[in-house]
Input
Amino acid sequence: MTREYMVVYEKCAGNWSAFSPDIPGCGSLGNELEDTRRNMREAIELFLEETAKAGEPIPLATAKSVDFEEFDPEHETKEYFVEWMRVSLPRSRAAAEASQAA
Output
């Protein structure tokens, strides 16, 4: 199973950074946008795997918009890229959700 999470990318002075509003504390960096996207997918999937192993609920993907004023009130970052990233859910979680849906 998969789920789509909103991911926000910020162009910084020498690299890109990324975060997901639905997964606080999970972020990534990269020299180029594609590096950052790859790193962010890996970070989200690892976060979800560890969350499932700990018996914690997998965060829902509920973000529909981003309040840029909240994290960039001075408008220091001038370039953003936002996407919904499809990631794989942990196998144990995906199996549990599939059996509940049946």
